[in-house]
Amino acid sequence: MIQFTVLGEAVAQGRPRAGKTKRGRTVLYDPQKSKDFKHYVGLVASQHAPQNLLEGPLVVKVKVYKPLLKSFSKKRTQEAEAGLYRPTTKPDVDNYAKGIKDALNKVVWHDDSQVVEFSISKYYSATPRMEIEVDQVMYGEPSA
Is residue 143 part of a domain? Predict the structure, then answer.
């Protein structure tokens, strides 16, 4: 099992942008913010990555901790820190998932198609971060 924490505010995968080449062909590319975030997550992951890329089916669990809102009362802040009050605001969790899976390609595993189970949760915290856990599926045992 590989576990690591990426400090800072998580960035959701942005919509692809379109541009033109000098020859007039249309090309799609990642927004700079998404690109930078994937690079950062990949860098942090590389410090915890195995010597050989993981093989076979994988289970990935991610906890995204968003920053507390300034409008929170002391009571709401305590509830949020305890996990009793959770974010229901955008971005959607699946937009986080895409960026994380892309960032871990060729760093932790060969291809994100190896991920057979992916769970992601959003929380509030005074310390914005992402906690990521990657585990290999053992054949013959259902994952817990």
Answer: no
Question: Does a cis peptide bond (omega within 30 degrees of 0) precede residue 91?
Answer: yes
CB 54 within 8 A of CB 136: yes
Instruction: Report the pLDDT value the prediction gives residue 97, as an integer from 0 to 100.
Output: 93
Q: Which domain holds residue 126?
A: 2-136
Closest alpha carbon to 44 in 36, 33, 52: 36
pLDDT tens digits along 26-54: 888 788 999 999 999 999 999 999 999 99
Residue 112 falls inside a structural domain: yes
How far, in Å, CA of 51 to CA of 23, rounded? 42
Domain count, the chain: 1
